[in-house]
């Protein structure tokens, strides 16, 4: 199939209203800078702190790194396009964005699962925790997460490269993803859409169910802990659970349904591509005394 009859796409963006576009530029520039600052601060704090050397913070380090990269796959172009007359993206740039978006999004999903697994072992298997979650095991788990993310992204880009584009070339979105690209393909996309749902949709649903099950088991096991132990465990798990819900809710809405367009699709996408990476560092710092103390020490040492 010849998919190069279209060599570039035009991103419709969130709106075509000039006044709203200026507001989008200011608002999302601030949100993006806050996202980078918050996640970078967590990465630096965990890397330099002597007290945050446990597996939980090892995984939080990679979650913050994935958050920063995930937001960077979409936010900069949205910001630039909001003040640009021509919102063009080349075919190769579009395919690169599809790969990077799914790679770091999938990486975030796998790291969230690893964090839930870590909390399960720490709370339900405390005597074996340090033996099981050794530094070597944590490194292997993160490596598997990288490999799994790469496999998922390669599957997505393989499907995208199979699509022939004959025109029109206006993507009704603010970034390249398979769902809006399927609408532009000059072929029957029913089978490919099924593959997208069975890939991205299945990953979202299965991982979400795994996470819900793991937290249910953790909550059930807390009945045998002391009141102080329950409060500490619930505080940690509550942070993780909030992150899981605000990330997976929008993802499931987008990737587990037939190729139907809803007016709220782009705003839902904004929530999990830009909102979630911004909220994660706030959730993990505001609800975590150890991280806040480590950040204070880091700031004091710089003075």
Automatic annotation (TrEMBL):
Q: How does it sit in the membrane?
A: Multi-pass membrane protein
Cell membrane as UniProt keyword: yes
Q: Which residues cross the membrane?
A: 23-44, 56-79, 99-117, 137-159, 200-222, 234-255, 267-286
Where does the record say this protein resides?
A: Cell membrane; Membrane
InterPro entries, alphabetically? Answer: GPCR_Rhodpsn, GPCR_Rhodpsn_7TM, Olfact_rcpt, Olfactory_Receptors
Write out the GO cellular component annotations: plasma membrane
Q: Does the keyword ATP-binding apply?
A: no
- Return one GO MF term: G protein-coupled receptor activity
Its predominant location is: membrane
Q: Which family does it belong to?
A: Belongs to the G-protein coupled receptor 1 family.
Q: What is this protein called?
A: Olfactory receptor
Organism encoding this protein: Dipodomys ordii
Recorded name of the encoding gene: LOC106001415
């Amino acid at each position: 199939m010849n998919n190069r009859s279209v060599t570039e796409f035009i991103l419709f963006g969130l709106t075509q209203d000039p006044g709203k576009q200026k507001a989008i530029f200011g608002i999302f520039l601030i949100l993006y800078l806050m996202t980078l600052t918050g996640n970078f601060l967590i990465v630096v704090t965990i890397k330099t702190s002597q007290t945050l050397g446990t597996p939980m913070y090892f995984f939080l380090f990679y979650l913050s790194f994935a958050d920063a990269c995930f937001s960077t796959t979409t936010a900069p172009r949205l910001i630039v396009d909001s003040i640009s007359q021509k919102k063009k993206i080349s075919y190769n740039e579009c395919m690169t964005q599809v790969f990077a978006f799914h790679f770091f999004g999938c990486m975030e999903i796998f790291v969230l699962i690893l964090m839930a697994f870590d909390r399960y072992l720490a709370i339900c298997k405390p005597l074996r925790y340090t033996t099981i979650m050794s530094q070597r095991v944590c490194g292997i788990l993160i490596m598997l997460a990288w490999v799994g993310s790469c496999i998922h992204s390669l599957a997505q880009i393989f499907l995208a490269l199979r699509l022939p584009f004959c025109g029109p070339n206006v993507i009704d979105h603010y970034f390249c993803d398979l769902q809006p690209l399927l609408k532009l393909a000059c072929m029957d996309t029913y089978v490919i859409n099924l593959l997208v749902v069975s890939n991205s949709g299945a990953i979202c649903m299965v991982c979400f169910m795994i996470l819900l099950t793991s937290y249910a088991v953790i909550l059930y096991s807390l009945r045998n802990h002391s009141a102080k132990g329950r409060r500490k465990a619930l505080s940690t798990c509550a942070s993780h659970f909030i992150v899981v819900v605000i990330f997976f809710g929008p993802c499931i809405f987008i990737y587990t349904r037939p190729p139907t367009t809803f007016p709220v699709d782009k705003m839902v996408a904004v929530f999990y591509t830009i909102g979630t990476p911004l909220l994660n560092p706030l959730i993990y710092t505001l609800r975590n005394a150890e991280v806040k103390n480590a950040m204070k020490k880091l700031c004091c040492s710089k003075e």
